[in-house]
Amino acid sequence: VGGGALGDPAGFLAASYLRGVPWIGVPTTLVAQVDSSIGGKTGVDLPEGKNLLGAFHHPASIILDIAALQTLPGRQLRAALGEIVKMAALGDEALFATLETEGEAVATGTAAAFETGIVAEIVERPAWAKVAVVAADEREQGATGGRITLNLGHTVAHALEAVDGYANLLHGEAVAYGTRAAVRIGVAMGVTPADRAARIEGLLTRLALGVAPLAYPADAVVEATRTDKKHAGGRLRWVLPT
After folding, report:
1. Does residue 35 have a pLDDT over 90?
2. Residue 83 annotated among the catalytic residues of the structure
3. Catalytic residue among 50, 51, 57, 83
4. Is 168 known to be catalytic?
């Protein structure tokens, strides 16, 4: 019972103890409800990088209760929208439109956002989308597409978290910066259309995500990407919006 910082190591402990025991996840943060509690990835961070020690061990059940989200600090709610914007950028146009009109209400935790079902929608849509992706490609074995797409924004995000020492940035905040990086790389490579890039970055700006300059040395962040798990044939694989 808790957020991803508890769920990930709890799941890893369940995977390791007696070579695996059943467990049930009750995520109580927004980022855990839409992302980290789903998919069976469990693990712990090392000084060298994010989730470098872990296992695939799905919970027997996941219980999402959005009432728990009403107890969260505003920063936790806003940060989680970084993960939800990522899912919208992967192609959920209805979610994208909802975030553009209602995202700020969710970020500030207004009572109306809960009462009208907006919070339920922005939890349910990305959660079920991730279930579908994981069911089709549990261990990221697809050469293109598949579960690797969920890594959009995470290469730079994990590097930022490592350079930060996991001390200040919340995960969703790091993903917002990482998504901006992926968008700009995509534009530079001719993969991401300019209008799509502008819409993604505009939404992040509207939600006050990935806006303030970070003080981490750029070379340290680039070096930290070398420990990212998304390598194939000795090369780092990037997910870029199309």
Report:
1. yes
2. yes
3. 83
4. no
